[in-house]
Fold:
Amino acid sequence: MEQLQNDLFLRACKKQPVERTPIWIMRQAGRYLPEYRAVRANNDFLTMCKTPELAAEVTIQPVDLIGVDAAIIFSDILVIPEAMGMHLEMFDGKGPVFDHPIRTEKDAENLKQITAQENLKYVLDAISLTKKELSGRVPLIGFSGAPWTLLTYMVEGHGSKTFSNVKKLIYNNPELAHKILNKLTNAVADYLSAQIEAGANAVQIFDTWAGMLSPRDYLVFALKYVNQVISKIKRNDEPIIYFPKGVHYRMRTTADCGADVIGIDWTIDLAKARDKIGNKVAIQGNLDPTVLYAEPGFIRREAKKVLQSYGEGNGHIFNLGHGILPDIKPEHAKALVDFVKEDSQAFHDNDVSTKVIKI
Amino acid sequence: MEQLQNDLFLRACKKQPVERTPIWIMRQAGRYLPEYRAVRANNDFLTMCKTPELAAEVTIQPVDLIGVDAAIIFSDILVIPEAMGMHLEMFDGKGPVFDHPIRTEKDAENLKQITAQENLKYVLDAISLTKKELSGRVPLIGFSGAPWTLLTYMVEGHGSKTFSNVKKLIYNNPELAHKILNKLTNAVADYLSAQIEAGANAVQIFDTWAGMLSPRDYLVFALKYVNQVISKIKRNDEPIIYFPKGVHYRMRTTADCGADVIGIDWTIDLAKARDKIGNKVAIQGNLDPTVLYAEPGFIRREAKKVLQSYGEGNGHIFNLGHGILPDIKPEHAKALVDFVKEDSQAFHDNDVSTKVIKI
Structure:
């Protein structure tokens, strides 16, 4: 077994005692960093995903530059549909586009059955290489899109405000929706298992569009498949984080999905979330990402409120409530990380004598 | 006083007994109706807003064609910033755009102080004319954007996914944000009062982007000003509906804002909302608008679940959880309205003998 020099993140995921609250930032390997943009200037997005050396380089950047307590492999949730045969283009500012979205039985049949070893080997290689280069400084997180969120992109073809096409599918042809969701569930479970085998110390399941569903539809089309994914993942004790963005309902049922950690966005009261599900799972979040537009003094006050809202004790992983925005100043991200590292100590039991007595 | 032939909607707003649940549909005067598109084909959107005859015509269309229990004046929430001097363009499919968004002290100072009588007379005329043409068949609803949502559009210049500019404003220059919000609060209160004076039987305040705020920011930048608007509105007993879309937190505080009705979107459990705030206010909502893509049989089953979720008794106004989408078939909207009219009778006390005893 490797020896991690900083395992705060993993301990917090398991609700074990930590000296301070660990922090990482969703999309921390991204455009807000000039060092990332320098790599991106010479390579398109998918080339970066598919070239382990480049993926490892940008994955490690925020560990060096911002001081986060975990790295997350540089990749994209849409590599699964791409591996299934969908043609994906990434446009800066416009987001990803599939030019032939999945709308019919025939479209769905054309999706390739994939395995991570055969079709997403480049991600596994990127994980192995990153692990080597991190040499135990912090844990490495792998990730995947959740079946529902992948289905949404595959059916819409791009981001959507109304989600009309995927809603038409689930209401008018639920059998087909479930068929694709089943296929995705197998692919996601295999993919996350392979990431763990390749060295990921934890994995996160991003369900970015879960919150567009009514509470009942969420159970049927999103959470059910996340349950299945989690039960199929092969792991030792690597924690699983589920982040159903925008989901403010069915929190107790969500906390029973088998994940060790539930991620919440900034519209959810962290104290209430802890009251509801903090006995079962650790909680990750939830500073409003736009707070990082403000000056460091303001950022620190808002970060403090997040720490206070969770309160004392274990089981909190500090993060934003969504990915860091591309026009945030890196020094603001750094100010946040520095503050959380320093200030969160007061929320944990660091009295050695007490600890000894407890043991 | 006028005599309304159908006052179910107004009674439901006041939580008074009704024989069945009233229904209207947000954006019911809109592109999904071929009759609307026929008018729109020869007139641009703002011309329709500014021509009382055209506004009255499309306002009444869904009363005739779909059978809703209330009309809502055809207009747009952005007529206030437009009247304040901002140049507004409406693009089909792209939404509204202000080419010079408000970002600085100077921009804000250039906003005109307006009164509805002077600067939005065309809306008042449209209301008077529509009332005459409706001749008491159903009540007429007036509306305005809430100060926060207006500010959002004015600062962003157009719709946004991240709301970066308005968040920068409230975090980095809250004084300026509050200054504009105060200006808007006065304009909105005056505008809604004038609509009531012109004949609106009820008014709705649309806070479309309230849900982008953290719970604390919502209180400070959105709800506070809605409270002020409501306390300033001059009215007799015309009900006020507040619809803070996406807001799932601070519901009890929201229910204390002075509105008679709170609108909720489809992600909120109607039964839980009633438990929390149904003793104080009536509730409007909340079928997922995309359900109307499904076949009528499915629409009826989902509408039934909404009725069941609210349960028996008064204080429910049936509506979608957001505006009807432009590519919905009119016969699906009609199927919904017909079903709610028929099926909701079972949720109300229609036993005459019981009624007599109760009296």
User: Anything to note?
Assistant: Chain B has one domain: 8-358. Chain B touches chain A at residues 159, 161-164, 167-168, 171-172, 211-217, 246, 248-249, 266-269, 288-291, 293-295, 298, 305, 325, 327 (CB under 8 Å). Chain B has 17 helices and nine strands. The radius of gyration of chain B is 20 Å.
